[in-house]
Amino acid sequence: MMAKQSSVFLITVFLITFTMVLYFVSVAPYLSENVTVALPIISGLILGLVFASLFKTSFTDPGIIPKATNLEVIQLEQQLNPSFMPDGERDYAALQRTKTVVVNGQSIKLKYCYTCRLHRPPRSSHCSVCDNCILNFDHHCPWVGNCIGARNYRYFYFFITSLSCLILYVFACTVLQLVLMVQEKKGFIEAVKFSPLTLPVLLICFFSVWSICGLSGFHTYLLATSQTTNEDIKGTFNTKRRPTVSNPYKKGNVFLNCYHVLCLPELPSLIDRRGIVRPDPVVTVDVSSLRGNWSACAVGINSAESRENMAEPAVVVSNSSPARQAQTQQPIPARSRPREEEPHPHESSDSNLNTNASHVTIEMER
Fold first, then answer.
1. Whole-angstrom Cα Rg for the chain
2. What is the pLDDT of residues 44-97, one digit of tens each?
3. Burial, 241: exposed, middle or buried (Cβ in 10 Å; 0-12, 13-18, 19+)?
4. Where is it localised (predicted)?
5. Which tens digit of pLDDT belongs to each residue from 300-335?
6. Is 113 a catalytic residue?
7. Of these residues, 127, 130, 133, 141, which one is catalytic?
8. Inter-residue contact 336 to 50 (CB < 8 Å)
9. Residue (of 262, 156, 269, 274) closest to 215 by Cα position
10. What pTM does this model have?
């Protein structure tokens, strides 16, 4: 699964394909005839590994945490909203937007995501591009068109390391061809004229090897220290900034840290791909019937005189069954901002369920 802005992913595929086409057209035939046919075969195998890891990174769920449903949000608000609790518990409820858990003796705060409406697990963060909370969020990579998280980090690491090996291998093969051709043609200019496509391949590899190999080295350091890019940038476990904070996710040594990320079984996806998304009921309010009394609605006058003067708006409830429409087709008082009625804490559970199920989306026709 890919993010909405995935056009850069196509550029990545094009750059790799274009460079390798030039290589197989200009460099590979010469090396097959004058050196050995194994050199182009090895480059083809590395290229296959690069594309396999790239597609696996791009089309794998990075660890998306499903957003909370309306019923779950209402139940959470009933637990956290001070209006539902006695006066003595209101201060405690206000602090529950941030929870604290202990991981290997280290206190970790779980922040509340107001977009996904849930408490994020440890090491998780919300991606503004994908608009989802991601488990073990590392970063959003536009070159692969996806977030890098708990479920696809190993494939991303394989992609950048295999791409580094491919660039270094192609660069070495191109230099080898140029050296042999210079010896045959008795000059660098004559060699370039004989194979003009060799020089572009050499330049592309030369300018890209620094960034790709540097990125591979940086993520190798993150693997060895059991960190994510997000944690390293924020300095979450930086001993210089926070001398008393230690990394609770270390496994003891470098090899165990790498084994834990690269070799353990892949985590199951939390997304139900076969599930049916049921939209909330939609209430359409005719605003034309509120003209003349709209100023009173905006001020929020709820007196008996203003309610008599204001016309009741027409309410149309869109639902799947006609019987449901008959039950929910009721006039509602005109307000400047329609809002949902809060359930009383002493009501029965059945009434609470009915109130929770009436969570609607208001659409106003002008």
1. 30
2. 999 999 999 999 999 999 999 998 888 888 877 777 665 555 554 545 444 467
3. exposed
4. Endomembrane system
5. 444 444 444 444 443 443 444 444 444 444 444 444
6. no
7. 141
8. no
9. 156
10. 0.71
